Every structure is written in C-alpha cells, then in structure tokens.
Amino acid sequence: MSQNTSTPTVKLLIGGELVESRSSQWRDVVNPATQEVLARVPFATEDEMNAAVASAREAFKTWRKTPIGARARVFLKYQQLIRENMKELAALLTAEQGKTLPDAEGDIFRGLEVVEHAANIGTLQMGELANNVASGVDTYTLNQPLGVCAGITPFNFPAMIPLWMFPMAIATGNTFVLKPSEQDPMVTMRLAELAMEAGVPPGVLNVIHGGADAVNLLCDHPDIKAVSFVGSTKVGTHVYNRATANGKRAQCMMGAKNHAIVLPDAHKQQTLNNLAGAAFGAAGQRCMALSVVILVGEAQNWLPELVEKAKSLKIGAGVEAGTDVGPVVSCAALDRVSSLIAAGEKDGAKLVLDGRDPQVSGYANGNFVGPTIFAGVTPEMTIYREEIFGPVLCVVSAATLDEAIAFINANPNGNGTALFTRSGAAARHFQEEIDVGQVGINVPIPVPVPLFSFTGSRASKLGDLGPYGKQVVQFYTQTKTVTSRWFDEDEVGTAVNTTITLK
C-alpha cells in the first residue's frame, strides 16, 4: 500500500459530501499502459463504512416518500449530464482501466441506457389491481422499496456496472451504498458526483472503497437489505452465501466461459470479424468475452483466416488512435494471463498465435498481451477450465451442431453463447437446446438492452433475479398485497362469518 501523500486521493461519498478518508491503508490507482500512479484510494475504516450505511438509512426515511415523478426527473437530468460529460468520463476510464477510448465510451453508453430506463420508473414500478374479487372486495399490490441496498462492482466495467446498479435501486425508492473496484474507482466517483448534480439527495447514494473487509461489512450490516454483485465466481459465491445467511436478498453475476458455434453456412467475413472483436476486444476482460469458438465441419478450415484477422489487430495504449487491444488492468493480471498461456502449451494445446511480450512503441512498461489463439483445446485443459480474462481464444472442432451443443452444455457456466449461421432451422434448434441464459444468433456478445434483463445462468449466476430490466424492479422492491372492503353506509351485516372465504 502506497503512503505517498503528494498524489491525489480518491474521496469517499458519505451523506452527500466528498470525504477525505482517515484510513491508514491506501492503494495506488495505476495507469496500466504506463505504470503512472494516478491517485491513491483508501480502504475505508469501519467507522467510515458504518457512517455511509447510517447516512443511507436516514435518507431512506424521506426518499422513499418522494413522488415517483420526482425520482424519474432526477434520472432524466442524470442521463443528460452523462452525455454532456462523455469525453471526460471516457478519458478517466481509459487512464485507469486501459481500454480504448471508443470502448470506454461504449462502457459508459451501455450504463447510460440503464439510466434512461430508470427515468421510466413510473410505469416500471406499477402494481396490479383486481376489482370486486368478492362482494365489495378489491385486491391490489404495491411495489415498495426495501431500504438500504448495496452494490459491489468489478474493475472491468467501472462505469457500466455501477450504472446497472444504483440508478434502478434509487429510482425504485431505495438508498444505496456502492463499493467500486479499488483498481479503477475514479470514473465511478465522477459518475457519483454527476448523480449529486442531477439532484440525488444527500445520503441517497454513498460510495465507500476497500477490499474484503468492505465486502464483508456490506454482507453483514443489519441495515442493508439487498446486495448486488458482479465479479469473480469465488468472490460472488462468498457474497451470496454470506449475504443470504444474514437474511438479505442477493444477486451475483459471476464467472463465465462463453462459447460460439460456427456453422459452415455462416457468412465468413462477418463471422470472422465478430469472433475477433468479441474475443480480443477490451483485452478479453469482459465477463461476456468470447473465449471459446467451436468450428463445425468445413468451418474448421477457417482457422488460418481467423489467425490472420487476429494478427491484424493493433496493440497499444487506449488513448492512441486506431488501437484495438489495450493493456490488461495490472501487472498481476498480465502475469496470470501469461502463466495460463504457458499452461495451455504444457497441456498440449496447439499455440497457433502467441501474443505474449508484444513490442508497443512508447509504452515499454505497459501490461500488454496480444491476441492469442489455441487450437486443439479439450475440456480437461487448464485454459478451458479457467476463465482467463485476457485476449486468449480457445478453438475446438466438432463434426455436427448437436456435438457442439453437447460440448457447451457440459460446461458448468451459463453466461452467454452464440451461433453463427444462415439457417433459421439451425438457429431455432440451437436456442431451444442450449442450456445457457443469454443466446446470440449471429451476435457474439448477447447482452440484452435494458428493456430486458441480464439473464446469465447456472454457475455464472446466483440469485433468481438479474440486474436492470423488469427483473431488477422486483429485486429492489417488496410486493405488498392489500385486500380491502368498503361497505355502503346503509349496509348492515346479517351474520357472523366464521369461514375463511369472503362473501
């Protein structure tokens, strides 16, 4: 932990105020292309974290009663501010995370779509009414906020994933405590500042920083009613088990091993472009990254062209024009990716493109690894079993579509999958038989727009309800059913009713 006091510090957000932490434990925020220290982020003290929760609890008393139209207008203003500050936000994101500037804008834009959806909360949070279910009896539902909710977000999408969480939680009338990744918290903090500017009242949104202690406090604190998490399977499983053991709602989007099947009838150039973009974009640091492609039948002959497509991608710093593949987020991430590539060779996979140790002019200290492709990959190999989280693509061969589907269904993860084909019959068969929550047909990264919800499945998800969309309104609200009867002023009851039926 750095103790350099001349470097800018990342603040906490507690009760509407940006607070300088009193922590003695700090971490450097490092530009992964240059190793420049951009800022120091604190691991908040227990008192500071408790103060953030207390602020959210107090703010809930009034925010929950704020008219739904007033809440919606905050997010109308917020989406405008995000658009106006897009370039600044993207520059911050690229500096601390490494992805290219266009990809950084894409990161922000996909979060912006959820903010826009939150502005429609007036229709999303409507209940139901059944009139005259018995004599003079009506039944209706209220979708009421839970209270203080919490979010724990990963390094790879420091804008999009926080924007998946707190806007919908707040729009539905809850208050929120956010813990972004300590690796790249600066763009998240700027988004929090813009939320304040948009009219989010003090205490409704709070931001803390930290590691395992912060995660555990959010899972344990009795005033927190729900926890949302995106990140690794190991941490997500811990969060889900600990939060639910404490009586909280939890949704955890976790690790993945995403596959695409390529049939010989697919449009070759479109498919190759899609495969390369989905496998190597964001340096492979996406939970929806395409990490396995299954070439079926004659499509196996496309491998050399796929390798050439990967070789054509430009490796460089995210700020440089024309860069396709930026650095991975840290030196530790680079070491891990490199060691997994070595493990692939040791296990007998054929390394047809080695992206290790690329020469990037002007960025000798960057955490760079180029597009890497293995052929002949089998399920027992480490590179197939592990989520590499780098620009590494595993290529598998299959004789038929059904063989490829069986291969995917045997994998424990279920985040996303895709099929490339021109056959409607094949596409329909695939979407019916595949056991994966999010399916793309000629779409390599099938993350749905916010009208729907993120629907990863099996080992990639814990909890019944996904982030954003209609499902997240259910997650962040408690359904209260009201059954009421009103008698006419001159109506007189004739007898005592001792049955359970309404008459």
TrEMBL record:
<dbReference type="InterPro" id="IPR016163">
    <property type="entry name" value="Ald_DH_C"/>
</dbReference>
<dbReference type="Pfam" id="PF00171">
    <property type="entry name" value="Aldedh"/>
</dbReference>
<dbReference type="InterPro" id="IPR010061">
    <property type="entry name" value="MeMal-semiAld_DH"/>
</dbReference>
<comment type="similarity">
    <text>Belongs to the aldehyde dehydrogenase family.</text>
</comment>
<dbReference type="GO" id="GO:0006574">
    <property type="term" value="P:L-valine catabolic process"/>
</dbReference>
<dbReference type="InterPro" id="IPR016160">
    <property type="entry name" value="Ald_DH_CS_CYS"/>
</dbReference>
<dbReference type="InterPro" id="IPR016162">
    <property type="entry name" value="Ald_DH_N"/>
</dbReference>
<dbReference type="GO" id="GO:0006210">
    <property type="term" value="P:thymine catabolic process"/>
</dbReference>
<dbReference type="GO" id="GO:0004491">
    <property type="term" value="F:methylmalonate-semialdehyde dehydrogenase (acylating, NAD) activity"/>
</dbReference>
<keyword id="KW-0520">NAD</keyword>
<keyword id="KW-0560">Oxidoreductase</keyword>
<dbReference type="InterPro" id="IPR016161">
    <property type="entry name" value="Ald_DH/histidinol_DH"/>
</dbReference>
<feature type="domain" description="Aldehyde dehydrogenase">
    <location>
        <begin position="20"/>
        <end position="482"/>
    </location>
</feature>
<protein>
    <recommendedName>
        <fullName>methylmalonate-semialdehyde dehydrogenase (CoA acylating)</fullName>
        <ecNumber>1.2.1.27</ecNumber>
    </recommendedName>
</protein>
<dbReference type="InterPro" id="IPR015590">
    <property type="entry name" value="Aldehyde_DH_dom"/>
</dbReference>
